[in-house]
Design goal:
alpha+beta; 7 strands; three-stranded antiparallel beta sheet; four-stranded antiparallel beta sheet
């Protein structure tokens, strides 16, 4: 990522799995979004990139909320603090479920084999 971001440009780093841009409201805040199965996704489309889900700058004074669709900013309604907490809680639960499923798929059989060996040797 460049140190200085240009307004209206969405930067993507495949190497680090992240995107960055300046807040669409013009406040100058740098917005970084991790790209991944439990985070944001980016799609290259005719007209420009789309970034999903929405960007909610809840910790910034501007509290901007928007989606980038085909290179354009689509403004979304502001959320209350309770809405932000609820969505963050659902997102955290989704991450936990996702990674638990990955770990079970990768290590489930291995852990069962190790447990079997340990029980056999005891």
């Amino acid at each position: 990522m460049p140190k200085v971001l240009e307004p209206g440009v969405l930067y993507l780093s495949d190497e680090f799995g992240t995107a960055a841009h300046l807040c669409a409201c013009g406040c100058g805040a740098k917005v970084r979004t991790p790209i991944g199965p439990t985070e944001w996704s980016i799609k290259e489309q005719a007209g420009g990139p789309s970034l999903w889900p929405s960007i909610g700058n809840w910790q910034r004074p501007c509290r901007s909320h928007y989606v980038i669709t085909k290179g354009e900013v689509a403004w979304a309604p502001s959320w209350s603090d309770a809405q932000v907490r609820a969505v963050r809680s659902r997102e955290q639960h989704s991450r936990e479920v996702h990674f638990a499923q990955l770990n079970h798929g990768r290590h489930g059989w291995l852990n069962r084999c190790i447990a079997w060996i340990r029980n056999t040797l005891e």
